Amino acid sequence: MRGHRDPQPSLFYAIDVEARIRPDHPLRPIKAAVDRILAGLSDRFDAAYSEVGRPGVPPERLVKALLLMALYSVRSERQLVERIDTDLLFRWFLDMSPEEPAYDATAFTHNRPRLDEHGLTAAFFQAVLREALAADLCSEHFSVDGTLIESYASIKSVQPIEGPKDPDGTPPDGNGFKPRNPDVDFRGQKRTNATHRSRTDPEARLYRKSVGQETKLRHLGHALGENRYGLIVGVSVSEANGTAERAAAVDLVDAFRDVAGWDPTTLGLDKGYDSGALFLALETRGVEPHGALINPPKPEAQAKDAEREKVAARHRMAARTTGTGYRLSQKCRKKLEEGFGWLKEIAGLARSRVVGRWKIQQLWEVGAAAYNLVRMRKLLATA
User: Fold this and answer.
1) pLDDT (0 to 100) of residue 17
2) How far apart are CA 228 and CA 215, in angstroms?
3) How far apart are CA 27 and CA 33, in angstroms?
C-alpha cells in the first residue's frame, strides 16, 4: 500500500549512531587506529591546556576533524563545521552525540597556535609513522621530492617592498573611489623577490619550477617517502627558492632518524637535487644517494675544482647511475608522486587555505597522516 508522511513530529528520538554506520565502512579501522594513537598522546594534550578555566573543544576532536577535512575533500573549516552539524557519520567519527551542538569554525583559528607551540600535529604524524614502523610497512629504501604549493594570496597583492604611496595599497580612480578588487596592469614592470613582496602573504615567493611554467606566489612542500608501499615518512614546508629542496632533503632524513632510530639505506632523487654538497652530506650519514645528474662531471673536473670532496661525491654518484640499484630507485621514486597527488587533489592542499608557513605545515602533517592511514588500512587488511 501507499505510505504516508506523518505530519506530527515526535517529541523524542532514540538514535543509535553506531548502528547507522555499516560494519564494513572504511572509516571504522581508521577510527580505531586514530583513537588508539590519540589516547597515547593524552599526556601531551594535557600539557598544552590549563587545568582551570572554561573547557574548550577537545584537541583530539580538532585533530580528527582535520583528518575528516582531508579524507572527504572538504574545502574549508566553515564547511567542515556544517558537515559536522548535519552528518551522523562525521559525528560518529568525532564521538559526538546527535544532540550535541557543533562548535564554531573559529575553534580552529583559536587553537592553531597551541597546536603549533606544543607540536601536536607533528606528534600525531610521528605516532602514525611509528604504527607503520611497528607493522614493518617501511623499507630501507627511500625517495625525497618537492612540490609547489600555491599561496592563498593573489598576484595583485605583490607590491614593492618599500611600500606603495597609498596607505592601503589600492590606487583610487579619478573620483577618489577605491575599488575592492582593482585592476592592476603589470605590463613593463619587473617584479622580483628582491624588490617585491605580497602584502597578504609576505612569506610567499614568486617562483616557478621549470621554463614555460607560470610564475606565481608559492611555497614549497617536501616529502620523504619509503619505496615499498609509498608511505610518507616525513613532510616539511619551506620558502620557494632554488636551494630549498636540497636543504629539506637532509632535514627530512635527520627527522626520520630521530623517530625511527635508523637512516635510510638509499635515497632516490631527481635532477633538482644535483649537488655535490648534498651527496656528500647524505654519504656522511650512511645514506647512498641515487640522484639524477643534470650534467655528468667531466673526468678532469676533480683535479681542477677547489672543492674536491663535493666533486668527488658527484663522480661517485655518476658511477652509481649505471647500477641496478639506481634504476630501481628512480623507478620507485614515482610512488612519492602518488602521495603528492593525493595531498593536492583529495586533501585539497594544492593551494593553501591559510596564510603562514607554520599553518601550512600543520595541514600537511595532518594530510600526510591521513594518507598513511588510508594506505595502512588496505595494507594491514591484506597482511
Assistant:
1) 86
2) 35
3) 10
